[in-house]
Amino acid sequence: MKIIIAGAGAVGTHLAKLLSREKQDIILIDDNEERMSTLSSNFDLMTVNASPTSIKGLKEVGAGEADLFIAVTPDESRNITACMLATNLGAVKTVGRIDNYEYLLPKNKEFFQKLGVDSLIYPEMLAAKEIVSSIRMSWVRQWWEFCGGALILIGAKMREKAEILNIPLHQLGGPELPYHVVAIKRGNETLIPRGDDVVKLHDIVYFTTTRKFVPYIRKIAGKEDYADVRNVMIMGGSRIAVRTAQYVPDYMQVKIVDNDLNRCNRLTELLDDKTMIINGDGRDMDLLIEEGLKNTEAFVALTGNSETNILACLAAKRMGVRKTVAEVENIDYIGMAESLDIGTVINKKMIAASHIYQMMLDADVSNVKCLTFANADVAEFTVKAGSKITKHPVKDLGLPKGTTIGGLIRNGEGVVVMGNTQIQPGDHVVVFCLNMMIKKIEKYFN
Q1: Domain ranges, ordered by start, for the chain
Q2: How far, in Å, CA of 203 to CA of 158, rounded?
Q3: pLDDT of the chain, 446 residues: tens digit per residue
Q4: At the topology level of CATH, where does 351-442 sit?
Q5: 20 to 30 A from 304, CA-CA: which of 77, 175, 349, 382?
Q6: For the RCK C-terminal domain, which residue ranges apply (predicted)?
């Protein structure tokens, strides 16, 4: 597959690294030579110093033969122009990064497709949705719904009160077990567990289950004493903060703290009265306490500085806030944030890359998610008639090591998959695998 990525910024370089491991034919173009100098020597990809909106430059890199053209420069109008040019030169599929919510409205989809932009991606909006799903439940690290919530993925950290510690998984219940442990993050290692593996203290355990068994997962994870989130304090008035405040459920009260007065005035115009805007330094603990930090169930740090966000979450935890979320854009810091027990970590470029990655899979995939902490991916496949996955019960499929089927949705109902489960055409199947193995799994669904 020939893939051209226009823009060697944070999202573009992360995506190029991700895809270069897959042995795809990757060309990364940018008109800033400095940005690309470190990349080509370390990764299996070609870098070209050219403007993404130059017809001559696009012809030189062969945009007309591209299977996928991805424009992720920081400039929205430039991305749209680059996609239009690439389509007219002959690129099969184009994706453009934007920062205008209006463009994503369903009524505008056809308009952009006619222009030559097949898909639009808005990383800040995706990040905000992820934040909201993680603060809905104070005891959850990660929450993700498949098929409108028919099947749910929950990531939770195991504390001393967890009931499932040190028991081999095969002893936890019989065939009627209402959940499946699909992945375990232990230190820097991610396991796709087998029956004789055990859950240990401080593991982050990823469960799949159906909605009615979520309280049961909460009980066995020892999290019943965690208060529900009613009050949210956000540090930093970024675009992600604005979207987060707009997406939170109506029963939550939101306060945004930002030290830029002009930005605070702008936030007041953008957001309705249920969001309180406070002009002040979010690093000032006295100010935060005065504004009710101790009565806040969730603290979200969204400044442009990863270190500040990590430290602010640590300070909030010390003040007794149970749920903290930090935006950590420096990928090297994600492991550190986890070892410091920050809570949920949001990384915009990983989220954006997951969504783009999904577009290049051949099978019918409606969802791909990169688990920020775990080196694992989750994909939701729709099963076609005659595909390999339908030929045998799950235990006899010979799935590659490091993969597991977390569950399936059949006729709108979530089902936890066991060894004897027979997958049928039309099922939506949720697969977990260690990083970079989705391509190996894909052939079972084609």
Answers
A1: 2-121, 351-442
A2: 5
A3: 889 999 988 888 888 877 777 667 889 999 988 877 767 566 778 889 999 999 999 999 999 999 999 999 999 999 999 999 999 999 999 999 998 888 988 899 899 999 999 999 998 998 999 899 889 888 888 888 888 788 998 999 998 999 999 999 888 877 678 998 989 988 878 888 888 899 999 999 999 999 999 999 999 999 888 888 999 999 999 999 999 999 999 999 999 999 999 999 999 999 988 899 999 998 888 999 999 998 899 999 999 999 999 999 999 999 989 899 999 988 788 878 877 878 888 988 888 887 787 666 544 555 566 565 556 778 888 898 999 999 999 989 988 888 889 899 998 888 888 888 899 999 989 888 876 677 778 888 88
A4: Alpha-Beta Plaits (3.30.70)
A5: 77
A6: 141-223, 366-446
Q: Which CATH class is domain 2-121?
A: alpha beta
| Residues 352/355/357/362 CA torsion (nearest 10 deg) | -170
The helix (H) or strand (E) run that includes residue 345 is: strand 344-346
- Work out the burial of residue 374: count CB atoms within 10 Å of its CB; fewer than 13 is exposed, 13-18 middle, 19 or more buried: buried
**Fold matches, 2-121 and 351-442:** no
Predicted TM-score of the model (pTM): 0.80
What are the residues whose beta carbons fall under 8 Å from the beta carbon of 56, sequence distance 6 or more? none
Write out the H or E segment, with its range, that includes residue 19. Answer: helix 10-20
Neighbours of 129 (CB within 10 A): 14
According to DSSP, the β-strands at 365-371 and 376-382 are antiparallel
204 forms beta bridges with 157, 185
